[in-house]
Amino acid sequence: MSNPGQAVIEPVLAWLHSESDVETKVLGEVIHATASVASIERLFATKMAVFRHVRTNKPIVRHLGKTSIPASIRESIQIVEGIHEFPRIPKRSHVHTPTPAAEATPGAGGFPFVSNQVPTTYYTLYNLPQTGVLVQNGASNGIFAQFAADGAPAPSDLQAFDNAFGLPPQKFNYNGQQDPTIGGEASLDAQMITTLALNGNTTFFMQQAWMYLFSTYLLTLGSGCPLVISVSYGWAEAAQCSDILHDIQVCQQYGWSNNQYIQNTDQQFIKLGLAGRTFLVCSQDEGAPGETNDGCNLDLKLALYPEYPASSPYVTTVGATAVVGSGPDIGVAGKKRAPALVSAIANPCKQYNCTRGPQVEMPCYLQNADFTTGGGFSQVEPMPTYQASTVKAYLNSGVAIPPPSKFNQSNRAYPDIGALGQNTLIVMNGAWVVTGGTSASTPITAGILTLLNDYLLGQKKAPLGFVNPLLYQMAAAQKNTFNQINQGNNKCTEEECCRYGYLANPAGGWNPATGLGSPNYGNMLSYLKANL
305-319 in b/e burial notation, b at 16+ Cβ within 10 A? Predict the structure, then answer.
């Protein structure tokens, strides 16, 4: 991390400490400060207020109106986070009470069946032993929750999930104070990452800031930073600096344009990679149109709106796949179900359809998963060399692609990899629920990479770190390191199916919906043993 020097830091600290209750910690080029509402109002010449989310009723304190910083230190401060930004809570929940097997077959919408994913599904599909793989050499990972937007995972839920499937107790830690609210997003992340990396050292991070400060915070942890980080959040690439309440460019107010915010955050991702950390993010659940065009109203304009940090060349972006033939487990319209308590249903696969045996995958889209896996091309990030030939092969394959006016085919393409995100069975609040999204596929992939790290650590070798060049090298040298995805598309969103999107290549290989394909752990491990 860079350090701007005491001549820059001391005046800023003096300003902050002009309020007696301010506590500060210098983290390289970042100063982390906590203070009372009254002190923040005086420091920034603003008014603070309590806002509540209309759906979750969760409170958050943010400013009203303008803010200002003394001219004497204005040039020393690039950006302020933690007083203006608001959490991006999903527009609708993907959490449902599972549909009993008798009602789920045949599947709604003409699908042959509805099937839910459980630990043995992942072990079979991704070439792991049926009992899973134990972390034995201390490999670590972490999952991220933004602003406590969706609560935290409950240890009792994780234990109930493990007991139901015969998994060993997990090493699960909380970074900071545990949120008493149990969240679907956090529960999903926790149960998926620990299912794939059994006995791994997993840490849950609850953050009030967005990607720049979160990545900066991870750098301050040094050796305490997890080797693999899984992030199931993102929003429009063009709106990283937009305050959604006031509709102003808050980064610009504090000195950064939207693109500068992205560039500076990318620098932190680069540092994490150089420090041996692997940073995974989801490709989001709004398909190629993105949340900006989730209603398909902008099809006649740009139509395809990329997401960030998914579009960063310095993270590993994960798309979501579905089992071919299975529809979404969203229950029977108009029928309300009582909670499926774990205490009453110890073995969920006796009550619900669980996916068994080898399966074929395709991209998740609105009809088969109740959401659509994101993917596409950045509007601002240039294409990295590690993926240039792979993406060029896709563009020249003869697969129908959107008009050139809709995307920049010379820029960063994502995702890099895919994994199951459809009909994910977990425990939440002591009951079985079915959920999903790229929020499932990302921690699943993070768990598999944790296992590869554990092998490397056992061989006294360096961890994977920034893994993208290796992934593309693997795919080129040994195609069976990935399960090939050769059908489907991501033209839909969470709401509608739009005119434009990207198709999988019938010949397999990389595509802008599921990347290189889903991971084949056994073959990846063999590749590492032979080549690293």
Answer: bbbbbbbbbbbbbbb
C-alpha span between 438 and 363 (Å, rounded): 11
Instruction: Name the token pair of 64.
Output: 């009203």
State the Cα–Cα distance between residues 66 and 72, nearest whole angstrom: 19
> Could you tell me if 69 and 75 are in contact, meaning their C-beta atoms sit under 8 angstroms apart?
no
| Structural contact between residues 104 and 330, judged by C-beta atoms closer than 8 angstroms | no
pLDDT tens-place values along the chain, 532 residues long:
456 788 899 999 999 999 999 999 887 778 889 899 999 999 999 999 998 877 667 778 888 888 889 999 988 887 787 787 776 665 556 788 898 887 765 655 568 888 999 999 999 999 999 999 999 999 999 987 655 456 788 899 999 999 999 999 898 888 865 666 777 888 999 999 999 999 999 999 887 678 888 898 899 889 999 999 999 989 899 988 875 543 344 576 667 888 998 999 999 999 999 999 999 999 999 999 999 999 999 988 999 999 999 999 999 999 999 999 998 887 655 567 788 999 889 899 999 999 988 899 999 999 999 899 999 999 999 999 999 999 999 999 999 999 999 999 999 999 999 999 999 999 999 999 999 999 999 999 999 999 999 999 999 999 999 999 999 999 999 999 999 999 999 999 999 999 999 999 999 999 999 999 999 999 999 999 999 8
End-to-end CA distance of the chain: 28
Task: Give me 271's structure tokens.
Answer: 């540092």
Show the DSSP H helices in 55-117 as ranges: 101-104
HEC-encoded secondary structure of 117-131: ECHHHHHHHCCCCCC
* Count of beta carbons in the 10 Å neighbourhood of residue 85: 23
Q: Contact, 510 vs 473, CB < 8 A?
A: no
- Looking at residue 171, its amino acid is K
Tell me which CATH homologous superfamily contains domain 103-135+211-531.
Answer: Peptidase S8/S53 domain (3.40.50.200)
- Structural element, H or E, at residue 472: helix 468-477
Name which of 175, 177, 181, 174 is nearest 150 in CA terms. Answer: 181
Domain ranges of the chain: 6-76, 103-135+211-531
Amino acid at 196: L
47 and 83 in contact (C-beta within 8 Å)? no
- The number of C-alpha atoms within 13 Å of 233 and in the hemisphere containing its C-beta is 23
Q: How far is CA 331 from the centre of its chain?
A: 26
Burial label for 265, CB within 10 Å (0-12, 13-18, 19+), is buried
- Structural tokens at position 202: 């997993």
Q: Are 133 and 198 in contact (CB under 8 A)?
A: yes
